[in-house]
Sequence to fold (348 residues):
Amino acid sequence: MTKIQSLVFATASALALVACGSNSGQGASRDNVRAVGSSTVLPFAKAVAEDLAKANPDIPAPIVESTGTGAGMKLFCAGVGVQHPDIANASRRMKKSEYEDCAKNGVKDVIEIQVGIDGIAFAEARDGLGLKLTQEDVYQALAKNPFGKPQAARTWKDVDPALPAEPILVYGPPSTSGTRDALKELILAKGCETDPAMKALKDSDKDKHEAICTEVREDGAYVDSGENDNLIVQKVEANPKALGVFGFSFLEANMDKLEGVPVGGVEPTYATISDFSYPGARPLYIYVKAAHLEAIKGLKEYVGQWAKSWGKGGLLAKAGMVAAPDDVQAVSAKIAGEFTLLDPAGLK
Fold:
């Protein structure tokens, strides 16, 4: 995009936003940047917001809300105008269907920035069961209908005779969470596809594959614990027979109380997540509404503050985020600096 094109785009965006705000019945201005979305990204987004406010006293600190990735995308994609969020934080990539909803509601210009890496950590109390699991173990323990059959496992030993004869009890994220989506994609589906028939089903009947391989049991063995990962930490700490599922940063911040459960023989650590050898490693993103860049005070600066914060040894690494590889950081920094629009062709 040339400088002239950028100026024209920015001016048009600002005028469109003010017009939308004027007609919204909710006022034509907003003092703060507003971000919604992932509970995993929440502490990082807040840290960047606080750092921005310290460095720029004339910019009010952005307001960051934890809604879950899915719910955050719905709010973000609902429209352009001051009544709608400027940023969606996400612990998975935007879905094609979400982008289509955005476009349908006039949010046609979206900027996608990978801000780092995280892992879906399985953790237990330090005096817990000492579980060592595989993706197939997790699938058989948590699937509603493992391999297309009714769920019959009540204890971990029912899943694998080598595991303890203790009831399956897992505290984890809700269906609106990007962590839940990543759990389904990176762990449950992979465990399901250890069966060749299930793997073949992915090509022959995608909907059936999704139902069998990713639907989570609802009989109490898996407990939906809402968009509060700290609450999961507390529940697991209080119950040595329980397992928790949340972002790696919450495990790292509570290593005095919890310990990671290996998956496929690999423990969730900074190193295994950064090199993606841990099966639950996943990128983290922010999505920015281009139409708000000129009209919302501090939005450009907030995006720029992310880019200043995500390096190795930087603010976000100190807060528990795993830094992305150098080449990914370079691409992200270029996007954040030039506000390059997302090409939706690669979305799924």
